[in-house]
Every structure is written in C-alpha cells, then in structure tokens.
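REQUEST ID: PR-0412
SUBMITTED BY: lab tech R.K.
PRIORITY: routine
TASK: structure prediction, single protein chain
INPUT:
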Amino acid sequence: MKKWLFYQPETDTKAKVMLIYHRQPTQEEIQEVGLPYIETENYHEPEQKFGKTGLPYVNPQTGEYFVEYVDRPLSTEEEREKRISDLEILVMELSLEG
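STATUS: complete
OUTPUT:
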C-alpha cells in the first residue's frame, strides 16, 4: 500500500521522516505541512528492539526507505526482564562451576 513520507533533510542522501500519510494528501495538506515528500510502497513500521528506538529515514535522491535504530532508556518492564535474564545467566554460570 502506498504511503506519502514527508521528510526533513539531514544530508543529500539522508532525511528523517517527520510525517506519514496513509492516503494521498491534498494540495492544501501538502502546503500546510511545508516539507518535501516521497511516495513509496516500501514503507514498513520499525521493528520493536530491546532498548532501541527505530527512526524512519529516506534517501531523497533514490527514494529508498530505511530505519536506523538508536539506544533509548529501558522501560520498567525491560529493566525487569534484563535483571531476570542477568540472574538466570549468573545461576547457570554458578551451576557449571559447581
């Protein structure tokens, strides 16, 4: 399904997606947004990754869509999962020593 990705250029080949239309925007909406855009059928939601946030980008020259993942603070639930995982690893290491 076609998407309209409005973006803010960062370099000649990299631009951060600021707004996504899931239907064709009207000329009035395009003017109101005031950003360049590309049309793509290659859009997908960023994956959920532990401790990461997916930021959508496009290459304005080629129209290529891509996602960059950056570190973010862990949520309370993720912090809990990490502690449990760390403890499970510690228990496993201790049992192998004994």
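NOTES: The chain has two helices and five strands.
REVIEWED BY: pending
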